[in-house]
Amino acid sequence: MLVVDAANVVGSRPTGWWRNRAGAAKRLYDAIAAAAQAGDLATPVVVVLEGQARSGVPEGDEDGLRVLHAPGSGDDEIVRIASETTDAMTVVTADRGLRARIDRDGVTLVGPNWLLERLPS
Q1: Phi/psi at 60 (nearest 5 deg)?
Q2: Are 63 and 39 in contact (CB under 8 A)?
Q3: Domain, as residue range, for 17
Q4: Confidence at residue 43, expressed as pLDDT on a 0 to 100 scale
Q5: Which of 47, 65, 69, 99 has its CA 20 to 30 Å from the CA of residue 26?
Q6: Domain for residue 107, yes or no?
């Protein structure tokens, strides 16, 4: 399972995302979906959205991708996911605080560039 801290990935590059958080979330989701469909990302993929970004992509499951709308902090939602599954998972985030909170065997932590390098331009 791949879990994406969408706010952290979107915020890792100065693309003007702060002017349209919902649009940035949609662009990231579309790129992840295209990479998964092309076989460049293994599914399942969970994309965690928080705040204004939630309005960019509806919550739900489609073709191995799941969008979760965090009721509060996206970090809290990712910690919840990691604590409720025993499956191996990769978490995409550069957030040091989040990385410290996810402390269990079977979790691999990678930075945003790991994901961005696998997405279509």
Answers
A1: 155, -175
A2: no
A3: 2-116
A4: 95
A5: 99
A6: yes
Domain holding 65: CATH number?
Answer: 3.40.50.1010
121: in domain: no
Number of domains comprising the chain:
1
- What is the structure's pLDDT at 121? 76
**β-bridge mates for residue 4, sequence order:** 47, 92
Report DSSP letters for 89-106, one per residue.
EEEE---HHHHHH---TT
* Contacts for 61 with CB less than 8 Å, ≥ 6 apart: 67
Number of neighbouring beta carbons within 10 Å of residue 2: 22
Structural contact between residues 116 and 12, judged by C-beta atoms closer than 8 angstroms: yes
